[in-house]
Amino acid sequence: MASVEIHNVQKSYGTLKALHGVSIQIDDGEFVTLVGPSGCGKSTLLRMLAGLEEISGGTIRIAETVVNELPPKDRDIAMVFQNYALYPHMTVAENMGFALKLKNTDKREIQGKVERAARILNLDTLLQRYPRQLSGGQRQRVAMGRAIVRDPKVFLFDEPLSNLDAKLRVSMRAEIKSLHQRLGTTTVYVTHDQVEAMTMADKIVVMRDGVVEQVGAPLALYDSPVNMFVAGFIGSPAMNFLTGEIRDDGFLAGDVRLPLAAPAPELVGRRAVYGVRPEHIGIGEDGVAAEVCVVEPTGAETYLVVRLAGQEVTCVARDRLDVRAGHMVRLSPDPGRIHLFDPQSGRRL
Amino acid sequence: MTAGSHAIKTGTLADARLRRRKDLADLTCDAVLALLLLLFIAPIVWMIVLSFQSDRAIISMFWELDLTLDNVTAILADDQPFRAQLANSLVIVAGTVVLCGIASTLAAYGLSKLRLPWWLTATVGASCAVVPMLPPMALVPGFYVTLIQTGLLGSLAGLIILNTILNLPFATLLMKIGFDEIPPALQEAASIDGASEARSFWTIMLPLVTPSLITSSLFTAIMTWNEFLMGLTMTSGGTTSPLSVGIASLVQPYEVRWGQLSAVGSLAVVPIMIASVLASKRIIAGMTRGSVK
Fold it and tell me: Where does the record place the ABC transporter domain (chain A) (predicted)?
């Protein structure tokens, strides 16, 4: 186990800058998720951590040692790839024991370690199979087995669940989390799926265009996003944004007055973006009237897309509602859970 | 009869008609293919039959079947060069397959997996595509002088090198397709697992390109076995030349020994035909690798 320190790390491809001075502190045993849209640099950062990409600037320390110039094999890390990267001509046992074989470990010791990892991951009966004879979920588990057999200082996961179907993804998510709880190894996990990030991580790093937007615990990011990007990225369905003006008795979006907890006096009269999560909008007898555009029942919840102050707003109802497109509903956003942002910079006010 | 059963009956009739039309189309297709097969196979079968016919029966005005082993025993006799030429051909093929296999595998690995400068990859790739298009005759003077200078003229080693040069471009391109298909993540996984570049080449890359290597080796073997021009120009004939050249020596100004010519021809064609038939699936699979995904 080890801590990881990423300090002012930059990556350039010729004149194109992919990472602009990223700094992240990952504590010993922590599960950190790098999350962001495609092309934000999260996978590049992970690959730099693994030693698969050169570092253009800054330093990366693993267990207090600067690893900038170290080849991947000397960093004592294990990585699980998006497409599993299992060796197709080797059996499951050979795949899992390959790293130990390269270290000239005793055959019996390799067998013992492989069997122990296989037991943890329920792969005992599949050890003599080839990757092509396994399902997607089983291959994923073998890839994880290959990583844990080595007992590395740090686990790196590069979008490991994105090739699995939705149901399997949920169960593998829980498996990876319980594995981390059991082994306690420092883990860096890259995903573009914010639900994965929220459910698994001790700490989330939200990235955009090669810059870290916010670092924090999942619920801290959910409750206090520093800008509109993080606010919109974390949480599903995404946060609603309405443009308007802050008044001392609420927020004026077009001709609709929305509830707001007493704003700071210096904010009164200023233009702003009113951010409210779908689950923080009550649907009932009171509140502002809005026309229903789309009703999406998911079973447990019902998503309503309504038109409010000329803009589309999503809200979530836990109860089953007898409403259809064209009906009018009354909405009451929870004034204590409103986020205000600057319309120009997108920063939280 | 209900409307439903009527519909079903109409459906069955239409199905039957469709099936009949399909049968007819299949039959026509089969007949055309059989005809084409006959067209291709007939000369070879004829050649094999001729190699067991007496010279008299061959040049007779009428169809005759006078079976004899004279032609075969004649070409395998000690005073004939064909046994030596067969051995030469086998050695040249084996040597070329090994040398070309090693060189093309290493070159293709470099082109596909090492991060070489783009101009180098482009130049090598372009020359791999252009060299096979040159008429081999244009290369003969250069090769001839080179072999004289190196003392390899007339030797099997010289022919092995020339055949390797001629087959290397295509074999390299074929091997490169094989390497291109291996996901980069496998090499990365190996490097994280602790494998050096050489180790990952031997234990991961090489086993995975074996199908491509088999395909390119078969192709090289066939091309080398059939190679004529270099065998003719770089040897002094007789026991120093390969079998492909030996066949032609039987066509002489005042006499063509048809029976022996056919026997040597059969000796040259049959092994490679058997190899081709056995390997055809493999070759087609190798050629079309990466074309559809």
Answer: 4-234
